[in-house]
Design brief:
This protein is of the alpha/beta class. The chain has 10 helices and 13 strands. It has 2 domains: 151 residues, NAD(P)-binding Rossmann-like Domain (Rossmann fold, 3-Layer(aba) Sandwich), CATH 3.40.50; 115 residues, UDP-galactose 4-epimerase, domain 1, CATH 3.90.25. Helix content is 33%, strand content 18%.
């Protein structure tokens, strides 16, 4: 098959390229050449901006995978430009599209969020999810049954630029007292980027359409199990110090950013880490063992520069301060 990828040289995109090429598919990348431009020397590249240079897409493909669509206006430009050039439009969305995370077992038919000004092009202020939902609708309007919408949860693994998972394996490997949020039983959901990529390529091969929640694993995973796994694979002496939600709020420690992966397990967000993925599992989504994901993430992170600026998690100084405050309570 011939697959066009919009993006293709960063996190999800580069793993999609690997997954497609491993199956013998012909890949073309369309991007501006600003991120990892020398990656994939044997892959055809079309340089251009998706707002201005869509006329450069003169070929035909069996599928296009849109890895970086955030605003419906721009997604519509791509979809309409490719309507007669690709058989299937695959859009990478997010579980953030859902409007109500108080429900446990959110499935693909549940309502998505709405935004008053649908023309806004700023993902801040709670607009990210509703804008992704509008992008989905745009793709479906143009491609109809020939559209495939993937709604991942937190994507993890090597080459993640957000550090939203990487913080934990690396921090636990460093050992000592580790500040951890809420309680060991707090549920989490994650998906290894390689499993996600394999799943998407498999769906394309099978000519599948529709909408799929894509996170994991296929059993309940807890934050405690994640941290214990990181400790096991790194053979560290980490000791986890569990801070209450009240302590973290009082000291302005933010969920998801300062404490990655974690969202408080309260009534309002009870369904955030309990999304129904049965449709994807039945369609072939498989899961790398957590030990392997953690081990590979630690290995990849060790290859980054020592002065890497972390995008998520606590600095060593801030964590030490918080641990001291906890001990004084």
């Amino acid at each position: 098959m011939k697959i066009l990828i919009i993006g293709g040289t960063r996190f999800v995109g580069r793993h999609l390229v690997n997954a497609a090429r491993a199956r013998g598919h012909e890949v073309t990348l369309f991007n501006r050449g600003q991120s990892n431009p020398n990656l994939f020397g044997q892959v055809e590249k079309i340089r251009g901006d998706r707002e201005r240079d869509l006329d450069q897409l003169t070929g035909t493909w069996d599928a296009v995978i849109d890895t970086c669509g955030y605003f419906p206006r721009i997604v519509r430009m791509s979809a309409e430009a490719l309507r007669d050039k690709v058989e299937r439009y695959v859009f990478i969305s997010s579980i953030s599209v859902y409007s109500d995370f108080s429900k446990i077992g959110i499935n693909e038919s549940d309502p998505v969020g709405k935004i008053e000004d649908e023309s806004v092009e700023d993902v801040g202020g709670g607009a990210y999810g509703p804008l992704k939902a509008l992008c989905e609708k745009t793709v479906q309007d143009v491609f109809g049954i020939d559209s495939l919408i993937i709604r991942p949860g937190l994507i993890v693994g090597p080459h993640d630029p957000t550090d939203r998972f990487t913080y934990w394996p690396v921090r636990v490997a460093r050992g000592g007292d580790v500040l951890a949020p809420e309680k060991t039983e707090t549920p989490i959901q994650i998906v290894d980027v390689r499993d996600l990529s394999d799943f998407i390529i498999e769906l394309i091969q099978q000519n599948v359409s529709g909408v799929f929640n894509a996170t994991g694993p296929d059993h309940e995973l807890t934050l405690g199990a994640l941290l214990d796994t990181c400790k096991l694979v790194s053979a560290s002496d980490a000791k986890f110090k569990w801070a209450s939600v009240e302590f973290l709020e009082k000291n302005k420690v933010a969920a998801w950013s300062d404490m990655p992966v974690w969202v408080p397990d309260n009534r309002e967000d009870a369904g955030f880490a309990r999304v129904d993925i049965s449709k994807a599992v039945n369609a072939g989504l498989k899961f790398t063992p957590l030990e392997q994901t953690a081990r590979d993430t630690i290995q990849w992170a060790s290859e980054r520069p020592e002065n890497h600026e972390w995008k998520a998690g606590l600095s060593a100084e801030r964590e030490a301060e918080l641990l001291r405050l906890m001990s004084e309570e």
